[in-house]
Design brief:
Radius of gyration: 11 Å
Number of helices: 5
Distance between the termini: 21 Å
Largest sheet: none
Number of domains: 1
Order of helices and strands: HHHHH
Length: 80
């Protein structure tokens, strides 16, 4: 799940933007309505767009822990 990708990075797992993107694309095969907006932001947007889509994902799926939102907003998701 996408939340696991976010939490793994938050917990210190090394981050690779290409691997993150590939995982999002994999999820879009099963859950296009959830993953496609994030993939679109990764493809065609900037870091703010990616953060916005990740925050939307968290909000829509009922994640309420503010520290996750804070983390999403504190890192660069497009950095290789």
């Amino acid at each position: 799940m996408i939340i696991d990708l976010i939490l793994d990075r938050k917990d210190g797992k090394p981050y690779n933007a290409k691997s993150f993107y590939n995982s999002i694309i994999d999820y879009s095969q099963t859950f296009p309505e959830i993953a496609f907006p994030i993939a679109e932001a990764l493809d065609n947007g900037n870091n703010a767009d990616v953060k916005r889509q990740l925050n939307d994902y968290l909000y829509i799926n009922g994640y309420k822990n503010k520290s996750i939102f804070d983390y999403v907003n504190s890192v660069d998701w497009l950095d290789l």
